[in-house]
Amino acid sequence: MAAFAEGTPCWADVLLPDVRAGKRFYGGLFDWSFEEADGLGALGPDGADRVRDGVDRVGSGEAAPYATAYRDGRRVAALAPKRDGRMPTTWNVYFATPDAPAAARRVTEAGGLVITDPVPLTGGLAVIAQAADPGGAVFGLWEAGGQSGFERQGEPGSFCWTEVYTRDKDSVDAFYETVFGFQVHDLDDATVDFRVWSPAGTRASDENAVGGRSVITDAFPAAMPAHFLVYFSVADCDETAARATELGGRINEPPFDTPYGRIALLADDQGAVFAVLAEPEAA
Q1: Domain VOC spans what residues (predicted)?
Q2: What is the CA radius of gyration of the chain?
Q3: Whole-angstrom Cα distance, residue 257 to residue 230?
């Protein structure tokens, strides 16, 4: 079982109104296969009941299973059913911690909010919780048990990066550096306000980076809430963006070049937003 340093993104799932449609979209986009009802579940306002059961109970009492996604036989993410239409259709990211209750206490002490207290998953796979930072961005905590999280990452069809978008950078910077002990450095670019996170005990550098903080500026819609953006690695950014539209999704921001590779901002056929990145050697 791979070990993830505290504060390292170790799992991601998407909350969807229609998991079957999600399987068609992401299976077609990233060549994912799926295994259902493995006892996991994304945490919503009443997610503790769901993860104990391992399924989502809709109004009719029908069970809608959590679908774990695999690429080349290795775990990469999951699709989770929404039990309440008021819940957002969104990608969630979980950060590793050796002690979820202790991390949850630090969240509160640092000015954040614990939305769902730490709860064990079925079969002792992990202890997870849901929290929000002082700016309102939601994220998960993951204390590994029998499952540490990703088995594949940084390769095509798998998670490669995450960043939080906020309007309250001062409070949010202090929050994450307190909760996870991140070592940080700011990009040397006067046009971009971006802080890079490296795990506690490492040197702050691009080589050790696990995520970062961006700012919601006036260039973004006024109604955009604080949020985490999840990135997936792809071999060809333009081809993936085109394929997303063929599958019923949309391109929110067309492919563009950065020093880190070619990026596109996409939405699936149910509205969940994510990004794809083709690193320079694969772009």
Answers
A1: 8-144, 158-279
A2: 18
A3: 18
CATH code linked to domain 158-278: 3.10.180.10
Residue 93 to residue 196: CA distance in whole angstroms: 17
Name the residue with tokens 């696990």.
210
- Coil, helix or strand at residue 197: strand
SS3 of 237, please?
helix
Is this model's pTM higher than 0.85 or not? yes
Pairing, β 138-144 against β 33-36:
unpaired
For residues 272 and 60, which has the higher predicted lDDT (pLDDT)? Answer: 272
CA-CA distances (angstroms) from residue 247 to 29, 98, 208, 279? 8, 39, 35, 23
> For residue 226, what are its two tokens?
């604080």
